[in-house]
Amino acid sequence: MNKLNCAIYQNELLLIEIEAKLINSLPQIKIAGLADSSIKESIDRISAAFCNIENYKMPPKKIIINLSPSDVPKSGSYFDLAIALLIYFANIEEESEFFVFGELGLDASIKSTNILFSILLFLSGVRKNAKVLIPKQMQKEASLIFNLDCYAVSSLKEAIEFFKSEDKEQFKVKKDDNLFNNSICINNEIYLKNTEFTLDFKDVKGQENAKYALKLAALGMHNIMLEGSPGCGKSMCAKRLVYIMPPLKLSELLEQNAHKSLNQEEVDIKALRSFRSPHRSSTISSILGGGTKNAKIGELALAHLGVLFFDEFAYFNKQIIESLREPLEDNCINISRVNSKTFYKTKFLFCAALNPCPCGNLFKKDQSCNCMQNMIIKYKSRISKPIYDRIDIYLAMDEVGPDAKSSISSKELAQEILEAFIFQKEIRKQDEYNAKLSDEDIKKFCILDEEAQNVLNKAQNVYNLSARSVNKVLKLARSIADFDKSVKISQTHIKKALSFRFR
Predict the structure, then answer these.
(1) Considering the entire predicted model, what is its pTM?
(2) In angstroms, rounded to a whole number, what is the distance separating the alpha carbons of residues 194 and 197?
């Protein structure tokens, strides 16, 4: 066997051919093809691993390993297994169609790396039903990728036996159906329901307006801003948002976890959306993504299909706040560096929480705020009009009284949202989330009756609404109408949507 396949991810998936050749010369292993130190160090790991293989000695020849295409820099310890197998089978003149991934331990065990899941996922889109040999550590994740034929081994010895064996089915990874125990079918598409309610709205006392606003935000992925005094429950509500959001498609779940994998995070396959809450001291590179050479993934892309929560929003770096304009509007981010250009999807629900003034007591009934008017204006001016214009729902939260009680649980809210979501898919035949509708989709799905159109026209003149603001009102009204199971948007829906605009 003188050829195997592998892959790298550098802004896009690149397929790599690994070739081996024995030459009559002094014993040596040479790796060509712009391999970095993580690949070149594999020589030592492979040599140690072979010590655990009985009755095997390295060929007393020069072994040349070539990684093609040779003009592309390559990195990754998961090349170990493929290189070791090519050395072992170097005397057999045949090529293999298998893709091989795995890092070798000194005891010849095969280990996984965090980025492997995203590579497998992208590979499934490029080469459907490709045959892939992977570490046994990641067979759970691989079992969810339905258009790959994955085989799992735990050691170099087992990998050698795999290629010698004619019955490879014993190594095959079975497709995991456990994740689908709580799935539902909508329009012949499988959606995965979240059944985990670790943080429950049952713990939130009072704040009925906030719960209704958050329910709308969760259904349509509408951007929401919560303003209120410290302790009124802004962060508490925001952290519970992901538990009530609509179910994910399997493709969305895998895409979300692929982003985590690119960030070298451990992949944990759950039907729960991502929740990212960076601190206000975070750098712009950590939020947007970046780096000196290759553009790495940032918090915006890691929140894809989930919630991005900025607590104490007004205290974030002004440059970070303004840089949210394009991702919030276009649902994607382009990062350019000298050596690379990267595109990431950023279709998330943006939730911001802030105080009404520097001291935070402006909304308090005891009138304990001691901020001067110019201090409040300066504090509010940190957030520009274009950012406010991209917020679908603005809500001023009141203090919670001692007699306030909890009213509804996350499970009940999730059921209400699911019913509205099913109405959106099955009755209205809309595939996109309401807040992410394009201009063409707005014309198709946001149909107003005559009275509603008159109310919107009047509001546009009175409040001097921009074209973007009008679209935001229409999208939010669409979510309100979905809860009422109404195909057309009425004047009541428009008025409710207008009540949530920042003025």
Answers:
(1) 0.84
(2) 8
Cβ pair 142, 134 in contact under 8 A: yes
Closest CA to 17 of 60, 66, 78, 54: 66
Cis peptide before 73 (omega within 30 of 0): no
Q: Do you know the residue count of the chain?
A: 503
Report pLDDT digits (tens) over 354-390. Answer: 999 999 988 888 878 889 999 999 998 999 999 999 9
Per-residue pLDDT tens digits for 129-149: 899 999 999 988 888 887 899
d(CA 121, CA 12): 12
Domain boundaries along the sequence of the chain: 3-176, 192-413, 437-499
Class of domain 3-176: alpha beta
The structure tokens listed for 258 are 């692929």
Give dist(CA 404, CA 216) in Å, integer.
22
The structure tokens 């929480």 sit at: 353
For 136, 228, 400, the CA distances from 201, given in Å and listed in that order, are 39, 18, 15
Token output for 41: 């160090």
- 192-413 falls under which CATH superfamily? P-loop containing nucleotide triphosphate hydrolases (3.40.50.300)
User: What one-letter code names the amino acid at 299?
Assistant: E
Instruction: Answer yes or no: are the C-beta atoms of 343 and 385 closer than 8 Å.
Output: no
Instruction: Give the mean pLDDT of 30-56.
Output: 93
